[in-house]
Write a structure and sequence with these properties.
A hairpin with a 2-residue loop joins β10 and β11. The chain folds into 2 domains: 309 residues, Metallo-dependent phosphatases (Purple Acid Phosphatase, chain A, domain 2), CATH 3.60.21.10; 198 residues, 5'-Nucleotidase, C-terminal domain (5'-nucleotidase,  domain 2, Alpha-Beta Complex). It is α/β, with parallel strands linked by helices. α4 packs antiparallel against α9 and α10 packs across α14. The protein has a 7-stranded mixed β-sheet with strand order 1-18-17-2-5-6-7, covered by helices on one side. It has a 6-stranded mixed β-sheet with strand order 10-11-13-14-16-15, with helices on one face. A 5-stranded mixed β-sheet has the order 23-20-27-22-28. The radius of gyration is 24 Å and the shape is globular.
């Protein structure tokens, strides 16, 4: 009766989508296992601006913003979700670090690794952002030690992650071995459960070429399926996949209507032995049933913890059923004292830089693109980069371009509109260095055409003031940019003429597929992107959003 009461209470406490696998000779007294999961934390130790957007409970035609996230509150929620569940494990589906706010990024994400270790995270798949600073730096995240350049900056020695990274599909080409183990097996009441961790196969195309050098990112489904016989030979029947790839639903955070995207095809290709898929990468929240399997994702920046309840058959040792609930990390929870102390220790060191006043913004500077792919914040960042490199001694730039993927969040107006260095840094947290190159007009045309290497997800570069162009969305790849509408300061771009062009070092290496930039000549390296934006806001405060009209879409 006690056992039945515990199950009933768990069912009442956790209401979410449920997927029941076909019963495989189900035995009596199933073993309960609770899996807690996060994805795409990105070093958000403090609650992110804007929290999480959900459907208004009082009007399902509207969305509302709910304050959410923050390591202090997440730790409390994780602890609460463990209570009453003897078999619990905390896991993650990649991008725990990288593209982080200043408090974490300033210390190369050591605070985030420490924070999640303190919460009891057990295993995590690598994501693409785990490789932002290269394989060796990721190994340092796991194993500890001082940064090779910046040395030991934190309030105490960095001992590395207490959790284990998994990288089933990431192979070091020099050794032929995976960078981290492909899976880890945990036993619950004598029943083994395997957790396979991997990132998306397209990782090499979205990290810098230097970071991807020497690494191979293999097909997701093929990687997982190849491991199934090995796991079965070890007596494993219950398999959970932690994958840093996802989809795009149209419903609320605990729903899954109309989901599309790579995760759908990947799940359909997986061996039937895979029971649950915990996904990420797209910064979406959903609880889905795809191909008769539970598939989850927990938004981004630590706003949700996904609680997954499994029932394991003690005879077959397989999953009988799985259900899940995305639980909001509400800021009304009590703060975890240990997390508060950790944040305070790092904040004391970071505050002198983070709190420097930049200036005033008249309105929130949005990164949301218009129909042509241009954004208010993108224009301002490109203008800042041109201003930082226009002088002859700084590169002699005539135009600047920046990648939209490097712009991570809005610069939000609050109170009187005052913004700090930390506020600006959060919008472009990769700390990329500006590079001014000589390109021909023909090179610029090729660069703009390369925006559509992936026609389903074009990467529209943000452009500085004085440059404009138009594209025809109905034209084929390589012919979308209208040549006679490529203008710089009122003059048409001439194919044979040389131009000094500023980009960041990620793009200069051919990042995001802009391979033509690797052919740029007379490279001059300048300041960091966040520093350029800080100087621009200081010099031009108050900053008022303009109308994004530099890029025109014909169709």
């Amino acid at each position: 009766m006690k056992h039945m009461l515990r199950l009933a209470l768990a069912a009442l406490a956790l209401v979410g989508a449920s997927v029941t696998s076909p019963v495989r000779a189900a035995g009596s007294n199933p073993v309960d296992v609770r899996v807690l999961a996060i994805n795409d934390f990105h070093g958000n130790l403090r609650p992110p601006a804007g929290g999480i957007r959900i459907t208004d409970p009082d009007d399902n035609t509207k969305k509302i913003a709910v304050p959410a996230g923050g390591a202090e509150y997440m730790a409390t929620l994780v602890r609460a979700l463990r209570e009453g569940h003897a078999n619990t494990i905390f896991v993650a589906a990649g991008d725990l670090i990288g593209a982080s706010p200043l408090l974490s990024a300033l210390f190369h994400d050591e605070p985030t690794i420490e924070s999640l270790s303190m919460m009891g995270l057990a295993v995590a798949s690598v994501g693409n952002h785990e490789f932002d600073e290269g394989k060796d730096e990721l190994l340092r995240m796991q194993n500890g030690g001082c940064h090779p350049v910046d040395k030991c900056q934190g309030p105490h020695p960095f001992d590395g992650a207490k959790f284990h990274y998994l990288a089933a599909s990431t192979v070091d080409t020099a050794t032929g071995k995976t960078v981290f183990p492909p899976y880890e097996i945990h036993s619950f009441d004598g029943i083994p459960v395997a957790f396979i961790g991997l990132t998306l196969k397209g990782t090499a195309g979205i990290i810098s070429p230097s970071a991807a050098s020497g690494l191979e990112f293999r097909d997701e489904a093929e990687t997982v399926n190849a491991l199934v016989p090995e796991l079965k030979a070890r007596g494993v029947e219950a398999i959970v996949v932690l994958i840093h790839e996802g989809g795009w639903p149209v419903g609320d955070y605990n729903e899954c209507p109309g989901i599309s995207g790579p995760i759908v095809d990947i799940v359909k290709k997986l061996d039937p032995a895979v029971d649950v898929v915990i996904s990420g990468h797209t910064h979406q929240a959903y609880i889905c049933e795809i191909d008769h399997r539970l598939v989850t994702s927990g938004d981004k920046f630590g706003t949700l913890v996904t609680a997954i309840d499994l029932k394991l058959d003690p005879t077959t040792r397989d999953v009988i059923s799985a259900k899940a609930d995305n639980v909001i990390v509400r800021n009304t929870l009590a703060r975890d004292a240990a997390q508060t102390a950790l944040i305070a220790a790092y904040d004391k060191l970071a505050a002198p830089l983070a709190n420097r006043r930049a200036g005033i913004i008249a309105e929130t500077l949005s990164r949301a693109p218009n129909e042509a792919g241009e954004s208010v914040l993108g224009d301002i960042i490109a203008d800042a980069q041109l201003a930082a490199t226009r002088a002859e001694k700084d590169g002699g730039a005539m135009v600047a371009f920046t990648n939209p993927g490097g712009i991570r969040t809005d610069v939000v107006k609050s109170g009187d509109g005052a913004v700090s260095y930390a506020d600006l840094f959060a919008s472009q947290p990769f700390r990329n260095q500006l590079v001014t190159l000589t390109l021909t007009g023909a090179d610029i045309k090729t660069m703009l055409e390369q925006q559509w290497l992936d026609p389903k997800r074009p990467r529209v570069l943000q452009v500085s003031h004085g440059f404009s162009y138009a594209f025809d969305n109905d034209k084929p790849f390589g012919a979308r940019v209208i040549e006679d509408r490529m203008m710089l300061n009122g003059a048409r771009i001439a194919p044979a003429q040389n131009y000094r062009v500023t980009v960041n070092n990620y793009l200069a290496q051919g990042g995001d597929g802009f391979a033509v930039l690797k052919d740029g000549l007379a490279a001059r390296f300048g300041s960091y992107d966040a520093d350029a934006l800080f100087a621009y806001v200081q010099a031009n405060t108050p900053i008022s959003p303009g109308v994004p009209d530099r890029i025109a879409r014909v169709n």
